[in-house]
Amino acid sequence: MICVVQNDPEVPMGLLADLLRDRTMRHGRPFRIVRVYEGEPIPENGEIRGAVVLGGQMSVADTRPYPFLIGVKDWIRRLVDAAVPFLGICLGGQLLAEAYGGRVILQSERGEKGCHDVSLTDAGRSDPLFSGMTGTFPSFQWHNDAFDLPDGAIHLAASPVCPFQAFRIGDSAYGVQFHPEATPPIVADWSRNEADADRHRAAFAEAEACYRDASRRFLSNFLRRADGR
Prior knowledge:
Layout: E1 2-6, H1 15-27, E2 31-35, E3 50-53, H2 68-81, E4 86-89, H3 91-99, E5 104-105, E6 112-120, H4 122-125, E7 136-143, E8 146-147, E9 154-158, E10 166-169, E11 173-176, H5 184-190, H6 197-226
Parallel strand pairs: 1-2, 1-3, 3-4, 4-11
Antiparallel strand pairs: 5-8, 6-7, 6-9, 9-10, 10-11
Helix pairs in contact: 1-6, 2-3
């Protein structure tokens, strides 16, 4: 089973949901979405072959208004220590970084919104998570906070504004700052209160074909990793 943890009702699975449903239809491999913001319990890792933790409007420090973040971070640590393939997206990547001693900078100067290119490091170019992808690919960003790398983490990708876009811990735990799951409705929703909302939507529409190809490749690579392929 692939377990997807959703921290925020406004940060859904997006493109990942399409891939997971197709995977279930083709191969009978189930997935489960756990809405921790509604109090749904996170399953323990006995049946979990892979896990994804999505983003959220909150920060890793917001444990008082969102106490479930403490449990999510502890769960991430148990999964990764058990070598279960893991992908943390935006807030999920920040939780992974913090769980392993990395610093998360709140309201960072590395914040990004909108479409930005991400470039792979030498390690990223040879990592199976980015197999078949170009050295620089389009991404969608929506973050104010940013992570530093935990000790021992492998740096996989960077952008001009945010030098730490992706990292790996061990053989199969990944944190990314960019959003591979974004879709036009997600972009429209996140940007609705922005003064330049039209610009964000137009830029995403222009980049969508390339973005979607890169994102599908990236997410499919992770799912193959979870399937042991």
